[in-house]
C-alpha cells in the first residue's frame, strides 16, 4: 500500500472521521464502523484532505480533466479543497462545480449549479466522501450530463465500504460503474483500513482490536460483496 494511503487512514482516524464501535446506518444496517466526512472542520484538516484526493485522482485518472464536480452538500467543500490542492501539487488549474439542492432564481449566478459553468467538451471527475447506495449519483449524473455535452471520466470517493449496493450483488461503486459507464475509485478500501490498523497502534491507540475485527468480519459475511 502506498505511503499516502497509510497516512490517509491514520488521518481519518485522527480527525474522528472514521470510527469503530456500534453504529446504525441510514440504511438500517448495524455497522462496526462509521465514516463522517463532516468531521473535517479545520483549515489544516481540509488542506490535507484536498491533497489526499488530489494524489489519488492524479494516480488513478491522470491530469486530462477540466472540472471536479462535488454533489451537494459534502461534495462542495471536497471539490473546492481538491481543486486548490491540484494547483498546488501539480500546477494544473481545474475548475470546481457543484449542484444546488434548490435552484436559485435570481442574481447573476442563478440556476442549479455553484462554481464553474459546465461547458461542451468538459472532462469531469465526480468527487464524493463515501458511496453506500449510489443515490447521490442517481440525482447528480443526469444533472451534469444534462447541463452540457460533457464526458464524465470517473468518480473518486474517500472510502470504498466494500459492501453490496442496492442491487444486492456487487458493490455500490461497481453498480455506479455498470449503470453510468464511467470508472469508480476510492482513496482506500476497508480492506486497506483493516490491513493497516488491525492490532497496530494509531496515535498510541489500537482502534481495530480482536473484538472489532470479529465484528467487521461478521458484517462482511452478511453485507460484503461475495
Automatic annotation (TrEMBL):
GO MF terms held by the record: orotate phosphoribosyltransferase activity
UniProt record similarity statement: Belongs to the purine/pyrimidine phosphoribosyltransferase family. PyrE subfamily.
Domain Phosphoribosyltransferase span(s) in chain numbering: 44-162
Enzyme class: transferase
Gene: pyrE
Protein name per its UniProtKB record: Orotate phosphoribosyltransferase
Binding site for 5-phospho-alpha-D-ribose 1-diphosphate: 26, 73-74, 100-101, 104, 106, 128-136
Catalytic activity: orotidine 5'-phosphate + diphosphate = orotate + 5-phospho-alpha-D-ribose 1-diphosphate
Transferase keyword on record: yes
Pathway: Pyrimidine metabolism; UMP biosynthesis via de novo pathway; UMP from orotate: step 1/2
PANTHER family: OROTATE PHOSPHORIBOSYLTRANSFERASE 1-RELATED
Amino acid at each position: 500500500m502506498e505511503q499516502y494511503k497509510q497516512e490517509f487512514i491514520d488521518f481519518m482516524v485522527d480527525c474522528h472521521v472514521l470510527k469503530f464501535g456500534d453504529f446504525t446506518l441510514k440504511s438500517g444496517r448495524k455497522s462496526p464502523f462509521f465514516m463522517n466526512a463532516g468531521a473535517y472542520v479545520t483549515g489544516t484538516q481540509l488542506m490535507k484532505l484536498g491533497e489526499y484526493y488530489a494524489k489519488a485522482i492524479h494516480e488513478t485518472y491522470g491530469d486530462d480533466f477540466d472540472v471536479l464536480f462535488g454533489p451537494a452538500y459534502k461534495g462542495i467543500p471536497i471539490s473546492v479543497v481538491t481543486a486548490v490542492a491540484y494547483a498546488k501539487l501539480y500546477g494544473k488549474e481545474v475548475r470546481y462545480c457543484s449542484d444546488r439542492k434548490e435552484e436559485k432564481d435570481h442574481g447573476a449566478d442563478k440556476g442549479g449549479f455553484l462554481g464553474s459553468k459546465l461547458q461542451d467538451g468538459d472532462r469531469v471527475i465526480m468527487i464524493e466522501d463515501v458511496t453506500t447506495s449510489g443515490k447521490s449519483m442517481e440525482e447528480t449524473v443526469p444533472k451534469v450530463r444534462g447541463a452540457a455535452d460533457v464526458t464524465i471520466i470517473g468518480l473518486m470517493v474517500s472510502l470504498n465500504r466494500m459492501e453490496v449496493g442496492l442491487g444486492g450483488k456487487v458493490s455500490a461503486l461497481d453498480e455506479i460503474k455498470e449503470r453510468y459507464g464511467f470508472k469508480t475509485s476510492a482513496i482506500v478500501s476497508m480492506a486497506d483500513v483493516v490491513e493497516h490498523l488491525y492490532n497496530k497502534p494509531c496515535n498510541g491507540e489500537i482502534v481495530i482490536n480482536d473484538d472489532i475485527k470479529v465484528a467487521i468480519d461478521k458484517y462482511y459475511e452478511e453485507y460484503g460483496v461475495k
